[in-house]
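Our consortium's second objective concerns turning raw sequence data into structural hypotheses that experimental partners can test. To show how far this objective has progressed, the report includes one record in full. It was chosen at random from the queue rather than selected for favorable results. The single chain below, 127 residues long, was entered without modification.
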Amino acid sequence: MSTQDPVERLVEAINSHDPQKVADCFTTDYRAEVPHRPSEGFTGNEQVLANWTAIFSRLPDIQGRVLRRATAGPEFWAEFEYVGTGPDGATTVLGGPAIMWARDGLISRSRFYLAPVPAPQPAPTGA
């Protein structure tokens, strides 16, 4: 098991495009809560594997980054941004904060507030 920071490890795993590496960032009893969409919550890193397998199939070039973060003991907050190209060639952007808890170097629980955000538009030319 890696002693690397759980947030850094997660972003590296996402950017590797390997769903198993992403799932390996979470405990087997991981609990995901999605307060704005409660029906999307789940338990277990096997569902993480299924979710990221689907995400990588729809957004094969997705890249993640952390915009801000804070840590207090086993709890950490991070604002994420994910950008990828959808099947129609359009840029897809997801962003928002996640509150997470770690146990033994792995993410054991999270509260996700991620949502689609408008893709950046080119600046207007001329006036």
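The partners drew two points from this record. The chain has a mean pLDDT of 93. The radius of gyration is 15 Å. Both points have been shared with the crystallography group to help prioritize constructs.
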